[in-house]
Prior knowledge:
Elements: H1 3-14, H2 19-28, E1 30-34, H3 67-79, E2 84-90, H4 113-122, E3 125-129, H5 148-172, E4 176-180, E5 185-186, H6 194-208, E6 217-222, E7 233-234, H7 238-248, E8 251-255, H8 269-275, E9 279-283, H9 299-310, E10 317-321, H10 330-349, H11 353-361, H12 365-375, H13 380-391, H14 399-409
Parallel strand pairs: 1-2, 1-10, 2-3, 4-6, 6-8, 8-9, 9-10
Antiparallel strand pairs: 5-7
The chain binds L-rhamnitol (RNT) and zinc ion.
Amino acid sequence: MNALYEAAKQRYAEIGIDTEEAIAKLGDAVISMHCWQGDDVLGFDSEGGLSGGIQTTGNYPGRARTPDELMQDIDKALSLAPGKHKLNLHACYAIFEKGEFADRDALEPKHFAKWVAFAKERGLGLDFNPTCFSHPKAEGLTLSSPDEAIRTFWVNHVKACIRISEYFADETGMPCVMNIWIPDGLKDTPADRMGPRARFKKSLDEILAQPYDKKKVYITLESKVFGIGVESYTVGSAEFTLGYASANGLVPLMDNGHYHPTEVVSDKISSLLLLNEKLALHVTRGVRWDSDHVVRLDDETKEIAKEIVASGRMDDIAMALDFFDASINRIAAWVVGLRSFRKALLSALLTPHATLTALQDSQQFTKLMVLQEELKTMPMGAVWEEFCARQGVVAGEGWFDTVTAYENDVLLKRV
Ligand code: RNT
Ligand code: ZN
């Protein structure tokens, strides 16, 4: 028996929280782990660099260069992250046989068979993303291109991705979340804002004309406010994606780096949950801009988790991580992000939402503030450690020793 946990359990019981229930719910929460932290979003289908207005910075040694290396790294990171996960792949992570190549519009399920085998062996679900960047045909606009040949190429790519997503769902027995995000936009003041959006809409209509099983594939649409080189205008703005998603039965996806700096996703979750059956999130950390820093246990991450848990609809929310830092050990980056977001969920599960709501509704705002502040120093750490112990994962900072050993034995030998 762990005395610290027993004491914490008592303390939480005093405010009406059952820590056993919190631990059980925390273990069931599924976080989708993004494969792209491991190799700086490069993928395996081209030699070119990352494009699309997103960027990794840093040159830390040990980047995964092959599918085998990336899989090995994912295993290492997952072994240090307690709880249930899915694996989130991008189309550019296709794995070809020697001498084989298929362009993005010709991708087939077989190009992801190795990922499916990897996921099945580990009981992981799979999520997917068309890759409308880092490609010669993505130098200008993609799904909103005025060039019909280019636009059609990307329409065919996304259609291929829907077939691959359905294959993932069939093979894993779990639904696949397929997220459409395009980097399309303009650096300077547009002459025509309507045209690109009209073509994006047309492309989406064409894509959705392809039948797919909505119980197996959840298509999400991610908005964005700006990117590097597309500062003045993005085609897939918040209004466009929200409107298109609700009019066409898609799931809206909010990335918390994709809004104006004083806007917060924690304030948007309730609205979208009331108006949509499902919701998807990219949990990231923007520092001054959409910088995709590693997710930490900061106030907004906790507030996002609070909204998810308090809504009572965690099962309707696809929670995925989306960050990429090349300046630190990449395995540690994954582990910090995965653990921090799960800690944020624990913090939310240990919050007496009904009590706080009653204070709000009865206008007892002083008491509400007092309780909210006192909650911040409740013994959550002891509950986290108990959760990790039950999950067979190192609770404290000791996990970093494993990463350090792996860095010496594996990562530093990748030269
Ligand atoms: C870019 C979007 C998008 C990507 C990934 C790699 O701003 O956030 O989700 O980060 O698809
Ligand atoms: Zn994102």
